[in-house]
């Protein structure tokens, strides 16, 4: 039975073996400290990376107490800071600690440097998206449940990973003179969770793949034959364009408006690759003038500085509702 005169030993005073996570975390913080010290920020480096606990520290101190036998018993008690809360593994504690140091340094450092400190704190706790947790997860396209993708089919076969739709050119006798044939998760269920897809784009002479965006993917094209004028527009409204021919490659950054037009005298074709199983596509003209329900004429008229009659004319050509 514990004697009333003895001090209680807090669990935090006991020797504990570090977990793999703690070892990796400590190694990352040591590396970050070295970088900041090399930049002449030694004092801040020590403040940010010099401890494996929060700014509220705990320590263990030696105490003596008298027992009923008259002998001095040696024991340990935990000495807490003003809050007494350990946060060596607490994301909130680390961010608060970094925030205090960043605010204290605001008068001496640039905003960029302060943001680097905050990013360094978060990087110790946040990792990239995990890899697939199984070999394959063939999409069950008939299941109504969607979990940021598709649920997995119970069974699958080679046909779930095969598609022959890009082998031959497709007809281009349409308004734009181009046809896009996708090869994404909707055509190849085996692409589910794999983060990749393709498409083939066929062009008649003068054919256009109109300005559009892929909200979920970067695109890279390889020209099979023909000649294309290609380009994308940055968020600063800068046009980046060039001409590509057979065997050439061009890249369109994720989410930016881009286009391809056949500038040669004959047909052209290209293969496009995406870093998403379902990159999505928004054709700018169709999105605005053929939306359901329709975007109001007043919005389109003012945005494009055209008359209501011109808005109606464009909607009628693109199949939009007036």
**What is the rounded distance between the termini?**
87 Å
* Class from secondary-structure proportions: alpha+beta
| Overall helicity | 10-25%
In the predicted model, the low-confidence regions spanning at least 5 consecutive residues are 7-15, 41-60, 65-69, 73-90, 125-130
Tell me the series of helices and strands, N- to C-terminal.
HHEEHHEEEEEEEEEEHHH
Strand content: 15-25%
Shape: globular
> Quick one: how many beta strands?
12
- Which sequence of strands runs across the widest sheet? 3-4-11-6-9
Number of H/I helices: 7
Question: What does it look like?
Answer:
Residues 72-83 have a biased composition (Acidic residues). The protein has helices at 20-38, 42-49, 91-105, 111-123, 284-289, 297-304, 308-318, and strands spanning 59-66, 72-79, 178-183, 197-203, 208-213, 219-225, 227-233, 239-245, 249-252, 257-262, 268-274, 282-283. Helix 3 (91-105) runs antiparallel to helix 4. The protein is of the alpha+beta class.
List keywords for this structure.
5-stranded antiparallel β-sheet; alpha+beta; 7 helices; about 325 residues; globular; Nectarin-1; 12 strands
